[in-house]
């Protein structure tokens, strides 16, 4: 068993790391707030490989839920320690805070001198740990989703000790006439009619209402005229209204208000009888004035009707269908019908515009074609419904729901139409471009030429039905679009995927064709001209022609907004129509031509190259799409990254990328603490050890916090580890991201963010530079790194994680490891001992260090009594039994002997010391004083195996290498913090490092005190 | 994690008993088992008999013998709930502080009665601490040895009277406990050890 004691540390946050980590591992989704930045939906956690116990979700969950409870820990020799369970490591090493050895005879409690700040127990020393009277639900999180007043939560929340509460249905008894209840449920009226109220007041109270329905007091009636100006404005107003109502936020709010399901329906677990079935009440629900008006009012021209119809129907239907949305059972068709139109309507209108704008000339021609085509394509017309039913089912919820999609993806998809709203996401960004392209293609006669264009056109075409044209031709198209969008949505998000998914929806026939198409994608991207497609093509043409009016009206607005809108519309139309593969291909082809194409272009090539691959890797492709855009722009490393990603084959990687960016910030904040620890340059190098899955990540961190590291390493194998896990887990999401990405890419983005966040101005600048300066070199190197790291294991890899994690670690490290820190500090203090940095450099050495760190149980209490005693003479080591503890389970016993002689200094350090005696001196100096930046770097570079760090400027902290950066970064901080005083303090505090190895029978303790 | 095949090792929810190398018989429901580290976590009924609490035992199977599966799990284990990490961290911190505070008092030579009283007050009023041998409650009331009601000093007010009530009740409870102790010596002893 090993114990480690540090000076007093009262860091409140200490527990966080462990807890956070654990929770993350729990995977239940109760991430920390910090984590929230990334994608919650994340497969992230799954992607990360946990080591040891951390991979065991249930073990992690249980151990985490007992964090902070008192426990009794029995070790092999029969000794019992009592303490507060703090955290645990991947090897199931356990950390007890405020632990003391329990004396056999019951006594009131430990004396102050008996208590060790924290003890790390190696799993192999632990026999049994007993946590008494633990409330396993103590930390259970009540998600905001689950209402506090659900039956489950009500019954689950018990104040005091009650037995399980049995819920009984409430029975009003006979005294309450059921009619009163029934009347409430069945009352169809929407509250009092205002006139009734007025009348009542007048009769009862003699109050006369001054209500004027024209609201002349508040507003001025609209004067209508036939002037062009008015019409323009009216059109503009209508358009604005559409836009607003098409926006996701609007829909979400409306859905919120009009969700038909009562609170009880949503949350109750009580099963009610038939009573609930009557939906009549829904009819009575409050209807927003706007929507009411629509139905009653006619603004002006007949054409308005069409949009309104779409909208109104959409709005009303969309809002009301609430139940449908939630209940999967509801027929897909209905959803499509109801929901589809509403959202689509705005889009549909836009789409026509888009077409028109470019293709207006063509429109006439196309229209003619359309008409002809329409009739024959009866299939096509029929198709839409089928689609909706088949594929639409999944997406239908989105459309109909006005409700926001539950899954992020859906949101994107749904919003894609609005375009602007979703622009933020990379996907959306791409989509617009594509759509534009598609639109142009569709409009252009070329459609006939390339099947793909046809495909695009098809969507609009399908939808179009001559009958629909009634008021507006556009309206029909809109409907079609609406229908299609559902299908399309997926396609939009994933260009690559489009082919297969979209295919299905159209016709079963087409499906087969499409399948073939997907398979043969490369060979015959455009070759599969389905009849349906052709028909489709004609239709789109028609749209433009139909909507000339709109064009005129829209022109003004269209020009400005339409950019996005068109994109959206195009998406809707193209995607909707879409035929999956064809559309995608079309977009791809079109893209190259257009300047905007860049982002999409990558995808296009991918498709061409490996259609199959793309399909299979749908996720990846998307990721590439999105990820590359952001990152590539920044770094220009597209090609490299792509390769890396591909090589990784980790679909998850892509998703993570976004997180990537996010990570840096959190990390930054923590970074400040680093200064305390001396920077250990070598850390980076150590990562190679694949052995510790978690460790590698940790290691990177270590470099960041110089002070911490030294200690870290020594104990790191086991004692330190747990903390890292905590950190690790927390970071996990982030980590995942980093993994997927090559080092630099990750770093670069991170860096900027860090800057913003960084507290230390001085640090920031340095950080900044690295990113910019290092950027180029890094790029080149990236492949190398990626290869190394990736090949080994995702976890190991990454220097990136290092960077990101580093901050976390440091922060945590301080809390968690404060003792460690101190000890390290001690180490640092005495020049004789190797510098921290040195230690880090050699991986192999670590184990040894670990041992040194461990203290034998017996001695512990004795030594600890004076935890604070900073000034113990070095040579206390051999207090108890002279024999070095052979037992250090992991570490070779022989090693101990060496290290023991040097208390704090790990054996590893010694060699290094010699080598870098100067360095050590420098390090010491650094610790104490600012000056060291250069020396550290040098050391670092030397230690660091990675060429990059070396190559860049040893002198300049900016070196591209992440670790280098960090190290550099640290320096400024140290300076700022006034490391010196604190450092000194640490040194004094330093506790002694106790290394005790207990063999089963014999204890040997080696104390080293500085 | 090496995912143990179904039925190969311990399945969550099954009941297991075993004997440690230190001669302790353990039994409980499997909550988690980690094959690599040979760690088994059991959940048992609370040793204090409280229904909403459990004892959790973490066992290193390397030092255990006579492992018996009493009965296998009957139903699939429930999903894991998210944990409020900050809550856990806070608990860890407060527990530690409490223990250190207690240790401080002990090393200061406070009598057992004083420590017990401190524990009792602390249950009600978190804001209490040791100052040498005096208990300071809410920075307002000072209770000095021998910690009787009369030893409560401070500004006259609700705080003082409140603390006095607590002290009074504490000693009343202690008295009743003692009387019980005579009748049920063993049980009380157990309680006192637990309470300590």
UniProtKB/TrEMBL annotation, chain A:
Bias kind Low complexity: ranges: 380-402, 417-426, 442-460, 567-594, 883-923
Molecular function terms from GO: mRNA binding
GO cellular component: cytoplasmic stress granule
SMART domains registered for this protein in UniProt: LsmAD (SM01272)
Compositional bias segments (type: Gly residues): 7-17, 24-33
Signal peptide: none
Domain Sm residues, every copy: 58-135
Matches recorded under Pfam families: LsmAD, PAM2, SM-ATX
Annotated region described as Disordered, given as residue ranges: 1-41, 150-188, 257-683, 749-768, 824-923, 940-964
InterPro entries per the UniProt record, alphabetical: ATXN2-like, LsmAD_domain, PAM2_motif, Sm, SM_dom_ATX
GO biological-process terms attached to the record: stress granule assembly
Lineage: superkingdom: Eukaryota
Biased composition (Polar residues): 471-492, 614-624, 838-855
Biased composition (Pro residues): 667-678, 945-955
Biased composition (Basic and acidic residues): 159-179, 257-285, 540-553, 628-645
Family in the record: Belongs to the ataxin-2 family.
Name this protein carries in UniProt: Ataxin 2
Source species of the chain: Fundulus heteroclitus
TrEMBL record, chain B:
Sm domain mapped to chain residues: 3-73
Residue spans of biased composition, Polar residues class: 177-196
Family annotation (CDD domains): LSm12_N
SMART domains: AD (SM00995)
Alphabetized Pfam families for the sequence: AD (PF09793), LSM12_LSM (PF21166)
InterPro entries in the cross-refs: AD, Lsm12-like, LSM12_ABD, LSM12_LSM, Sm
An annotated Gene Ontology molecular function: RNA binding
Residues covered by region (Disordered): 173-196
Domain AD: 81-175
Cross-referenced PANTHER family: LSM12 HOMOLOG
UniProt family annotation: Belongs to the LSM12 family.
Entry protein name: LSM12 homolog b
Upper lineage: Eukaryota, Metazoa, Chordata, Craniata, Vertebrata
